[in-house]
Structure formats: C-alpha cells, structure tokens
C-alpha cells in the first residue's frame, strides 16, 4: 500500500468516524432507542441508514467487475452470496451484541477513542471474540489438513 493510499484511507476513516459521531451512531442510548420498536422508538437512525445505502449502493455498482480501486489498490469485494450457518449465527450474535450494548464495531471504536468506558469494554470483548474465532478457525483448518 502506497503512502498516498494510506493517507486517503486515514482521511476516509476520520470522515467515517466523524459521521458516526455526528449521526449519533456512537451513542448507545440513541441506538438502543432505535432498536426499541415496542417502546419509545427513535426512528432518526433510519435516516442515517438510508443515507448510507444511498451512497454505498451506487459505489458498489460502480466497482463491480473491477479488480483494482481508483488508487490502483486491489479490491476485496465479497464473492459469495450463500446464506450458510456461520453467516446466520454471526448475524444473530452481531444483532444480540448490538441490542444489548448499543454498539456495533465501527461506533464502538469511535466511542472508545472518545473515552467511553462502556465502549472500551465492548471493544475488548469484541477483540477477544475475534481472537477466539481465529483460534477456532485455525484449529479447524489444521484438523482438515
């Protein structure tokens, strides 16, 4: 990865993080209010999601079929459309974690950087879970070899 690519990636990450802060996605109370369909539902984050889809969908269509980005870096887009057991279990775990804590990975990292202790605990738990998954995946690959 070139220095130019790294600087652009850093800038994109900073803009993304700022967007998460400004939209309220890094505020677990706002997220939990959005997820509380049976109670005091706060629909404002739906506008954030609609905005993200509005920007993201055309961008993915634009790069479909390309192997390199505009900066000549390799594109790593998903290739599988299969809905399998690991995907469903992962989605369920993601949803339960989001519903219990009010954080998903991006906003948790932003909130951790902003000094929220709850976000730090969530981020450490998330990293631990990722490590356990990697350990299990390596054992599975080794057993199959």
Mind explaining what this structure looks like?
The chain is mostly helical and 145 residues long. It contains six helices and no strands. The chain has helices at residues 3-23, 28-35, 44-63, 85-101, 105-113, 117-144. Helix 5 (105-113) crosses helix 6. It is globular. The protein starts with a helix and ends with a helix. The mean pLDDT is 88.
Describe, in short, the structure shown.
With 145 residues, the chain is an all-alpha fold. The protein contains six helices and no strands.
Q: What is the share of helical residues?
A: over 70%
Strand percentage, roughly?
under 5%
Average pLDDT taken over every residue: 88
Number of separate strands: 0
The topology string of helices and strands comes to: HHHHHH
Structural class: mainly alpha
- The backbone outline, from C-alpha atoms, is globular
Number of helices: 6
Largest sheet: none
N-to-C CA distance: 32 Å
Low-confidence stretches: none
Any idea what the radius of gyration is? 18 Å
Descriptive key words:
globular, single chain, mainly alpha, 145 residues, 6 helices
Furnish the topology, listing elements before pairings.
Elements: H1 3-23, H2 28-35, H3 44-63, H4 85-101, H5 105-113, H6 117-144
Helix pairs in contact: 1-5, 2-4, 5-6
């Amino acid at each position: 990865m070139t220095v130019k690519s790294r600087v652009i990636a850093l800038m994109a990450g900073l803009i993304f993080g700022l967007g998460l802060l400004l939209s309220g996605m890094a505020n677990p109370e706002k997220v939990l209010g959005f997820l509380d369909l049976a109670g005091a539902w706060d629909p404002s984050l739906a506008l954030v999601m609609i905005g993200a889809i509005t920007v993201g969908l055309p961008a993915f269509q634009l790069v479909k079929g390309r192997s390199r980005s505009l900066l000549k870096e390799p594109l790593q887009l998903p290739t599988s459309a299969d809905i399998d057991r690991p995907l469903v279990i992962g989605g369920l775990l993601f949803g339960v974690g989001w519903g219990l804590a009010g954080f998903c990975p991006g906003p948790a990292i932003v909130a951790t950087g902003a000094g929220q202790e709850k976000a730090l605990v969530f981020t450490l738990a998330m990293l631990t879970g990722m490590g356990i998954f990697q350990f299990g995946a390596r054992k599975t690959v080794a057993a199959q070899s």
